[in-house]
Structure formats: structure tokens, C-alpha cells
Amino acid sequence: MTEDRREATPRRAAVAAWIGSALEYYDFFIYGAAAALIFSKVFFDASDPATATLQSLASFGVAYAARPVGALILGHIGDRFGRRRIMVFTLVLMGVATFLIGCLPTREQIGGLAPVLLVVLRVLQGLSAAGEQASANSMTLEHAPEGRRGYFTSFTLNGTQFGQILATLVFIPVAALPEDQLLSWGWRVPFWCSVIVAVAGYLIRRHLSETPAFQAQVADGSVPKMPLAELFRTHWIDVLRVIGAALIATVSTIFTVWALNYATSDEIGLDRSVMLWVGVLANVVALGAIPLWARLSDRIGRRPVFLIGAIGSPIMIFAYLASINSGNYPLIFLVGCVCFGVVYSASNGIWPALYGEMFTTRVRLSGMAIGTQIGFAVAGFAVASAAGIMTDDGWLGLQGWVGVGIFTAVLCAISVISVLTAKETYQIPTADLGRKDAAVGV
């Protein structure tokens, strides 16, 4: 391979991960906006608004419950047959499932079958998302030059944030439609646009080359026949660490879904379009912050950067929810951008490198997929749990947004403890990652 091609391949892998993740998570996040603003009125019994809202937010979490199952299946395939196949499959599956959600008849049209079909398609979204980030992260990490793995793997999460921006921008004009148009056809448009994903996913990723690390395993016949068995035999502690660390994603689901629903509820009454713009600007800030945090992790290590986000995020969630409760729009924008765009990005931008470097090439994709998706499943249902905290009974006697903030902080504390027990890996050569006797490179 020529020098120019060696230099271009990591960039090509990073760009493919960025674009694919942006398209994939555009689909995934438009469901979150719809669950917060629309689905309680379209697919669930609107005569009981509180229960309908809870059911709608729970349907958002269903995809997270499906993700561990998808991780088991797609993780095995990715470690057995390669990263590229999973990267193409996940995008196509997500695009088709999301398009079909936009075609569903409502509860008024077919009754109780409507929410059942909605949940089925949401499960397919979850199965797709289970393999997307793990395969893209494995691809970029194994292509990345030594000493720059944090930066290159951050492209996956940067793409995820852009997908969230795109999803929110599409929903802003939709949310501004008159109520009758919004509930009849307007909400469907963002879902129909996802048909582009199925086509773009194939075109973007079909020519991407497999990673050198995986090709080396194929060449010497060392690809594991049962990656999951090897994973749980040799790396079960690392899987548990990733599960605990991945609970930091609760900050994302609370910020993007629950806080949006809370802010636009009758109790607070903030404008839907304005609150959607908060999410857009916070994610724009994250687009700049993520690669900067990632570069810092290549200099000082993964753990200190992750811990900045894991400790700072629950503090900022309290501030963000308090700003919503105040109704002060400038304060909401400022605190939202600092919370989600800057502080949370410290953890969010470098976890692909932190988690991926815990495993060997033989089990990297399955280890990351299973660990993250179990943790993300808890984060997904945290939205419904937060809605339950807001009921009269509260959580541990803590009612209102304060209880939600403490609930988020408890899950973030588990992330902190999990990462404190992990080994620092940023200076270990790629070929030695995951080995218990690995030495720091020069």
C-alpha cells in the first residue's frame, strides 16, 4: 500500500462513519421528538393525557430494550465476518423501519393495532442502532494511526450529533404547523425522508475496505468461530465496565426527550419550536467540542476526559432543568449549550476510544456492542422513569424535576465508578489492545 493510500484510508473510514452515523441517528432521533410531542395524541389513548404521554415515552425506550438483543446478534456477525457488512446492513434496516413508521395508520383508524405496529418498527430501529456505533467505532479505531485513535473514533459520535441536529431542524417547521395538520400528515414527513437513508447507506459504505486488524486475522486463520464465548470467557469484567460507563447516556435521553416534553407540557408551557432550537444549538456546540475533547484524550488519556463529562453532566442537568422551570429563554439556551454541548461532550466524544481499547480485535465489536447497548437500554427507559417520577408518588419521595435530576446523577455516579476501575489505554499500541500484559508504547 502506498503512503498516500495509508494516510487516506483512516480519513475515509472516519468520513464513512460520520456520514453513516448522521443518517442512522437522524432516523433514530426523529422518533424521540415525535414521542415527546405527537405520538401520545396519535397512537395512544388521548382521553387520558398523562397515561398516553407515559406510554409514548415508553415506546421510545422500547428500542433501547431491543438493542442488547441486536448487539448479541450483530456483534457476533461483526467479529466473525467483518465490520463493513454490519455497517451497510444497519443503515438499510434503519431507513426501511423509519419510513414504514411514517406510513402507519393511527389509533383512530385501526384502534389498538396502531401502537402495536409502532412498537414493532421501533424494535427494528433498536436492532439496527445496536450494531451501528460498535461497527463504525471498530472500523475507525482499527484504521486510525497510533496516537490519534481518540480523534478518529470521535467522528462516529460527531456524526450522531449531526443526525440529531438534522432531525430537530426537520421537526421545527413540522411542529409549527396548525394542530390538525400536524397530527394528520405533518408528523409523517420526517419519517418519509428516511428512505434516503436506505439508498445512501449502501452507496456510502459498500466500497469501504475492511480494517487491517481484521484482515490480518483472516489471513492467519485466527478469526474466532464463537466470538461471544471468547468475549465472556476473557473480557467479562470489561463488558461490565462498559455497561456501567454507558449509563452516562442517560444525560442525553433526559436532555433531548424528557426535558423537551416537560418544557412544552401544560405545567411549564414553553414554546415547542423554541425548545427544539435549544437542542439544535446545543448539538452545534457539540460538533466543535467533541473533536477537541477527543484530541485532548490523545494527549492526557481517556479516563480524565471522560470523568470531566461524567461528573459535570449531572450538575449541569440540575442547572438545565432549573432554567426550564424558570421560563427564562436566554438562560435555557445558555445552560443547555454548556450542559449538552460542552460538558456532556467530554464523555460522549471519547467513549468510542475508551470502550474499544478495552478489547482485542477478536471480540472488539461484540464487546462494545453488548456493553454499550445494555447501558443504553437503561438510559432509554430512564425517560419513562423520569415521567413516573413526575407523578404524585414521585421517586424516593422526591417529586418534580429535582427528583429527575437526582435520578440522573445516581446513574452518572455508576459511570464514574466504572471508569475509575478501567485501565488507561491511550498509549498502548493498537495490536496490543485488550491484552492483560500490554505495555505502553513508546
Structure summary:
The chain is mainly α and 442 residues long. The protein has 19 helices and no strands.
Q: How many helices does DSSP assign?
A: 19
Oligomer: single chain
CATH class: Mainly Alpha
SSE sequence, one letter per element: HHHHHHHHHHHHHHHHHHH
Q: Judging from the principal axes of the Cα atoms, what is the shape? A: globular
> What kind of sheet is the major sheet?
none
The level of helicity is: over 70%
Radius of gyration: 21 Å
Number of separate domains: 1
Walk me through what this model shows.
The chain has helices at 3-37, 39-42, 49-81, 83-102, 107-110, 113-143, 149-175, 179-186, 188-192, 195-205, 212-219, 227-234, 236-245, 250-263, 272-300, 302-326, 329-356, 364-389, 400-420. The protein is mainly α. It has one domain: Up-down Bundle (Growth Hormone, Chain: A). The longest helix has 35 residues, at 3-37.
List the helices and strands and how they pair.
Layout: H1 3-37, H2 39-42, H3 49-81, H4 83-102, H5 107-110, H6 113-143, H7 149-175, H8 179-186, H9 188-192, H10 195-205, H11 212-219, H12 227-234, H13 236-245, H14 250-263, H15 272-300, H16 302-326, H17 329-356, H18 364-389, H19 400-420
Helix pairs in contact: 1-3, 1-4, 1-6, 1-7, 1-10, 1-14, 3-4, 3-6, 3-18, 4-6, 4-10, 6-7, 6-18, 7-15, 7-17, 13-18, 13-19, 14-15, 14-16, 14-18, 15-16, 15-17, 16-17, 16-19, 18-19
